[in-house]
Amino acid sequence: MNDAKEEIRNLKALLNQNSQNSNKPPSTDIFVEKKTQSDEKKSDRLPGGQKRHPGSTLNTFNSPNEIVINRLYNCKHCGHSLLEIETNDYEKRQEVDIPILNFIVTEE
Predict the structure, then answer these.
(1) Residue 75 in contact with residue 65, Cβ under 8 Å?
(2) Which of 63, 65, 59 is nearest to 99 (CA)?
(3) pTM of the entire predicted model
C-alpha cells in the first residue's frame, strides 16, 4: 500500500512540474495558462518620455576620428544632377563604436 502511495506522490510531482519550477522548456507547459499582451492591464501613461521629465542624450564629440560626407549626387525622384545646386541644410549624426579589445596573455 505504501508503494502505491509513493508512486502516486511521484506522479503528482511530475504533473506539477512546468517551466517555472523546473528546467523544462516553456513549450512543454500543458496546464499553465499562457498570458497574452491583451491580458495585461493597460497603463494610463502615453508611450515615450513623460511630461516634465528632463530627459538626456549622449553628448557629441568636438573632434571625431573620421568625418564622412554623404551627399546626394542625383535627385532620387527625377534623377537630375544635384552637383550644381548649393546645399541649404544638413544633418549631423555621430556614431560611437567601441573598439575590439586585444588581450595580452602572459604565462610565467
Answers:
(1) no
(2) 65
(3) 0.37
